[in-house]
């Protein structure tokens, strides 16, 4: 491995300007326990093999027949082989040829892959096309048989075999480097550097190469692992240095011949090969984790599932859904992080509640929590969500799942990715219909057509045969709505249902939802950041900011007299706020990310009315009467000021 | 679909030429005299001269290659310089052994890998960690060594399976199974773990996708979510990775056949290498390349069946 790092480092001139991604790979590698352990082992192994004449306790060729096939002892730490030779000493000497072979392979690998990959990615055009073609073909070459052919001609020349291996398997690495170089090339700073008149080599060495370093190290260590496996395999087949010269593969072959009376002999040689290959492999994985962004790191994390502490607040009279004090925590690599704190709102049967906020405010998480579909690393820590009198959050998962689709349904933001691309529209609709109605095939088919007519899709018979990628976004959203309606739900959660569509289609979808609501009497929770949508479709609004509800009111009241500075700012930046299709205009600053929330009011940093008191302690919801609340110390005076 | 197959066949022709040309080219790079290398140091000058004429080694390189290709397309691959047996016959008789090793290994790797990967993506927890550890071992331990360990346990210690040798399927199906069990396990270990890892990664991604959330939210039963939607969609990238894994396993047969003394192409190639038997190694190289082309074609077809985007367009 050290070999891999060294070979790539030689390309970096000392004059290269500092790039944050550059120096840190090796250093951050050594900071992880895995990295330190594997690098440490490999360095020790390299040094010990190099110094084998000094550190080996015995002559690797010296036979002591009366000590043949002895187990580990003080004299022979790893025992002796069938001819009474010291296993440890033979391993150390054998390491020289194995590691040299790996090194030769790695050098050839780098020499072929790095220039080709960078040329293909950076130059593009014909160079790229030709290199990509050749790489495609070479990837399919059965390498082993080429190596055998080589060894047929060049007797026992393992070096030639390893160099050939390195060059042939460079195809895959070339492809990876090409992709990396291509992405760097597209980035702004390269074009800026080009404008400044840097020469091509300067751009290559200062900008492209350093950014490809992570990929190169990863690929080279993975190749080193493969190369060692093949080197030992070839020596196992006695195609390497002739006996009695010690080789790792040869030692496995020797052990095999005495496997019936002493299976122990298989352990040291095989174990050392295994550990060394493993170190190369882990090294590659670790560097990949370091260079990849942390987004994948939380993929394996799971938040513990426990029953959340129930909320104490009473539900609103007659509410279909009553969410109280909902708090959600996500497990991240840097610890648990609150993303929702004490969110409360109510939805009456048949009404539409708008859940409004900028991205990052927590509205989608709220919707998912109510459906019981948080990501694996998220969990509800506190609160209740009473639906028709039953607290969903306290239900066993099975019973909650049984309510989905039948009582509460979902349509989501991106209709083009909301449907399974591997099944036809009809197959998916039929599956959902049959799950709800327990009906036969023919009956289900009729119901599917009926649903498609309900969402005003022309030619349902044709649409059922299409795959999701064959229909338009607007059609896909209609199909999604049909699917959500299949179980005749009482509550539809619509998570930004029109954001991804063009303006005319948006209007049609909103009209459709309104019509369906009138016909079926279902309630809708409409998650959106578009005030036009709110004005058009909602009767009540809950405005969210940084994981909290900051204002709750009837839609007319919010538009006429917003009672929270955040809502007011949103209104002010959006004068024609009733215009559809217009997202919330920017307010200076950003929604603070989870984990960076201040103790006091979370809007304080962006608030024009902020006073010292606002920063001191968490701000509670202020009841303003007439079904209005606001999470602001100044709420009453704001309301008086604006209504005066 | 037809376009996919057409494209595959189109890139396969250069592949065949590259491999055979490379092997042929190596021969002309031999320092000194090829016939001398083949016959060894002690060969008489007369024998060397005779072999030179027999193999046409005195002719110019391109002429010889063209000559070989001309014969090869008619099914004549020359004969072994050691045994004199026609190369085509020995390759064909041994192909069956290698395939009865390779095909079950790939099937086992695909099935076990997908099951383990799915389980680990869905369950997480200790199962995922166990699979992590096992995949590291599968990655790290050389297959020939794993083969030897299996022999020492199941053949030497327990005596339940034969250590070496091959029984053709036609002779006795049960003995055939016994004779390939250990080799197949040893050969598939790497594939199982590689596919398990790939499946886990792609299944985790699919599990986190919008459409899975959407289907779950609207009442598709969990069983169907996992066994139909997640499985189907995560198997598409797995099918892609199967190509390289299969080519790797094909190379692995060389080592495994030697460990278990199976009379397949791999042991033929090894023997030919030790004997400097150039016509045989050329024949094996060609046969391996054809096998790779066949594998790639099958995988293209599987990919097309799994991915409607290929089928429909
Ligand atoms: S509490 Fe203070 S900082 Fe927060 S919104 Fe009200 S006035 Fe602004």
From TrEMBL, chain A:
Family, per entry: Belongs to the ABC transporter superfamily. Belongs to the binding-protein-dependent transport system permease family.
Subcellular location: Cell membrane; Membrane
Residue segments, region Disordered: 1-20, 294-317
Membrane topology according to the record: Multi-pass membrane protein; Peripheral membrane protein
Keyword Nucleus in annotation: no
Keyword Flavoprotein: no
Family annotation (Pfam families): ABC_tran, BPD_transp_1, oligo_HPY
Composition bias, Polar residues: 1-11
Protein name per UniProt: Dipeptide/oligopeptide/nickel ABC transporter ATP-binding protein
Domain of life the protein comes from: Bacteria
GO BP of this protein: peptide transport; transmembrane transport
GO molecular function list: ATP binding; ATP hydrolysis activity
InterPro entries per the UniProt record, alphabetical: AAA+_ATPase (IPR003593), ABC_Ni/Peptide_Import (IPR050388), ABC_transporter-like_ATP-bd (IPR003439), ABC_transporter-like_CS (IPR017871), MetI-like (IPR000515), MetI-like_sf (IPR035906), Oligopep_ABC_C (IPR013563), P-loop_NTPase (IPR027417)
Taxonomic source organism: Flexivirga endophytica
GO cellular component, one term: plasma membrane
Residues covered by the ABC transmembrane type-1 domain: 99-284
Transmembrane segments annotated in the record for this chain: 36-56, 99-123, 130-152, 158-177, 215-239, 264-283
Boundaries of every ABC transporter domain copy: 323-571
Keywords, sorted A to Z: ATP-binding, Cell membrane, Membrane, Nucleotide-binding, Transmembrane, Transmembrane helix, Transport
NCBIfam families from the UniProt entry: oligo_HPY
Gene3D superfamilies: MetI-like (1.10.3720.10), P-loop containing nucleotide triphosphate hydrolases (3.40.50.300)
Automatic annotation (TrEMBL), chain B:
Spans traversing the lipid bilayer: 9-30, 101-122, 134-156, 176-196, 236-260, 280-306
Localisation: Cell membrane
Topological type in the membrane: Multi-pass membrane protein
Domain ABC transmembrane type-1 residue range list: 95-303
Record's keyword terms, sorted: Cell membrane, Membrane, Transmembrane, Transmembrane helix, Transport
A GO biological-process term: transmembrane transport
Record flagged with keyword Transmembrane: yes
UniProt-listed CDD domains: TM_PBP2
One of the record's GO cellular component terms: plasma membrane
Protein's UniProt name: ABC transporter permease
Family: Belongs to the binding-protein-dependent transport system permease family.
The keyword Lipid biosynthesis is annotated on this UniProt entry: no
Protein source organism: Flexivirga endophytica
């Amino acid at each position: 491995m050290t070999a891999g790092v060294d070979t790539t480092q030689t390309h970096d001139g000392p004059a290269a300007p500092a790039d944050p991604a550059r120096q840190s790979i090796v250093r951050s590698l050594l900071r992880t326990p895995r990295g330190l352990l594997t690098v440490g082992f490999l360095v020790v192994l390299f040094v010990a093999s190099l110094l084998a004449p000094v550190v080996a306790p015995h002559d690797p060729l010296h036979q002591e027949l009366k000590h043949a096939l002895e187990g580990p002892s003080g004299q022979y730490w790893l025992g002796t082989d069938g001819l009474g030779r010291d296993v440890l000493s033979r391993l150390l000497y054998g390491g020289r040829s194995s590691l040299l072979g790996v090194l030769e392979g790695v050098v050839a690998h780098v020499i072929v892959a790095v220039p080709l990959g960078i040329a293909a990615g950076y130059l593009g055009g014909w160079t790229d096309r030709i290199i990509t073609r050749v790489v495609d073909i070479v990837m399919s070459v059965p390498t082993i048989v080429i190596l055998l052919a080589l060894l047929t001609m060049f007797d026992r020349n393992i070096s030639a075999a390893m160099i050939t291996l390195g060059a042939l398997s460079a195809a895959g690495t070339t492809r990876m480097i090409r992709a990396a170089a291509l992405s760097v090339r597209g980035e702004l700073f390269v074009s800026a550097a080009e404008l400044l008149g840097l020469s091509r080599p300067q751009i290559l060495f200062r900008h492209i190469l350093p950014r490809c370093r992570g990929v190169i190290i990863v690929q080279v260590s993975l190749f080193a692992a493969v190369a060692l496996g093949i080197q030992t395999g070839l020596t196992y087949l006695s195609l390497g240095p002739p006996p009695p010269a010690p080789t790792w593969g040869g030692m496995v072959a020797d052990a095999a011949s005495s496997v019936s009376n002493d299976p122990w002999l298989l352990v040291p040689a095989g174990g050392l090969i295994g550990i060394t290959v493993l170190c190369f492999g882990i090294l590659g994985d670790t560097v990949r984790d370091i260079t990849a962004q942390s987004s994948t790191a939380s993929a394996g994390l799971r938040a513990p599932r426990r029953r959340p502490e129930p909320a104490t607040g009473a539900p609103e009279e007659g509410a279909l859904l009553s969410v109280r004090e909902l708090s959600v925590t996500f497990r991240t690599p840097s610890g648990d992080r609150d993303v929702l704190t004490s969110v409360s709102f109510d939805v009456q049967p048949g009404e539409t509640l708008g859940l409004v906020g900028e991205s990052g405010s927590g509205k989608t998480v709220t919707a998912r929590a109510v459906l019981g579909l948080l990501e694996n690393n998220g969990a509800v820590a506190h609160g209740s969500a009473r639906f028709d009198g039953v607290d969903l959050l306290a239900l066993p998962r099975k019973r909650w799942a049984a309510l989905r689709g039948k009582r509460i349904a979902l349509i989501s933001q991106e209709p083009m990715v909301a449907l399974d691309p591997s099944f036809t529209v009809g197959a998916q609709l039929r599956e959902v219909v049959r799950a709800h109605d327990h009906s036969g095939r023919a009956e289900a088919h009729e119901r599917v057509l009926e649903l498609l007519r309900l969402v005003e899709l022309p030619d349902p018979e044709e649409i059922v045969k299409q795959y999701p990628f064959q229909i338009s976004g607007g059609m896909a959203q209609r199909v999604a709505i049909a699917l959500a309606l299949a179980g005749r739900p009482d509550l539809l959660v619509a998570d930004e249902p029109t954001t991804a569509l063009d303006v005319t289609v948006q209007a049609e979808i909103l009209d459709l939802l309104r019509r369906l609501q009138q016909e079926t009497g279902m309630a809708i929770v409409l998650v959106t950041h578009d005030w036009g949508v709110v004005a058009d479709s909602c009767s009540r609004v809950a405005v969210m900011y940084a994981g909290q509800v900051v204002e709750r009111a009837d839609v007319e009241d919010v538009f006429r007299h917003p009672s929270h500075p955040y809502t007011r700012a949103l209104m002010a930046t959006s004068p024609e706020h009733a215009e559809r299709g217009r997202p919330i205009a920017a307010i200076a600053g950003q929604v603070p990310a989870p984990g960076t929330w201040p103790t006091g009011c979370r809007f304080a940093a962006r608030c024009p009315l902020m006073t010292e008191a606002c920063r001191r302690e968490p701000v509670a919801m202020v009841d303003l009467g007439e079904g209005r609340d606001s999470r602001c110390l100044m709420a009453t005076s704001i309301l008086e000021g604006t209504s005066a | 679909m037809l376009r996919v197959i057409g494209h595959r066949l189109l890139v396969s022709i250069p592949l065949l030429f590259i491999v055979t040309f490379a092997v042929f080219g190596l021969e002309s790079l031999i320092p000194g005299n090829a016939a001398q290398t083949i016959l060894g140091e002690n060969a008489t000058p007369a024998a060397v001269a005779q072999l030179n004429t027999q193999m046409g080694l005195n002719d110019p390189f391109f002429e010889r290659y063209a000559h070989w290709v001309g014969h090869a397309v008619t099914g004549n691959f020359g004969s072994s310089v050691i045994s004199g047996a026609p190369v085509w016959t020995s390759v064909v008789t041994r192909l069956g052994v290698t395939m009865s090793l390779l095909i079950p290994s790939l099937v086992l790797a695909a099935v076990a890998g997908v099951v383990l990967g799915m389980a680990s993506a869905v369950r997480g927890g200790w199962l995922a960690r166990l699979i992590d550890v096992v995949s590291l071992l599968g990655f790290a331990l050389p297959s020939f060594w794993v083969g030897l360990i299996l022999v020492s346990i199941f053949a030497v210690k327990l005596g339940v399976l034969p250590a070496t040798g091959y029984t053709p399927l036609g002779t006795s199906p049960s003995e055939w199974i016994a004779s390939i069990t250990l080799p197949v396990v040893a050969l598939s270990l790497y594939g199982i773990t590689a596919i398990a890892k790939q499946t886990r990664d792609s299944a985790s991604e699919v599990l986190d996708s919008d459409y899975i959330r959407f289907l779950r939210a609207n009442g598709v039963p969990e069983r169907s979510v996992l066994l139909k939607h997640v499985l189907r969609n995560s198997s598409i990238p797995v099918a892609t990775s199967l190509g390289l894994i299969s080519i790797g396993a094909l190379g692995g047969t060389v080592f495994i056949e030697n460990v278990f003394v199976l009379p397949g192409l791999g042991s033929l190639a090894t023997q030919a290498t030790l004997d400097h038997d150039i016509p045989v190694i050329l024949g094996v190289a060609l046969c391996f390349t054809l096998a790779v082309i066949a594998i790639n074609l099958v995988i293209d077809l599987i990919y097309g069946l799994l991915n409607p985007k290929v089928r429909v367009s």
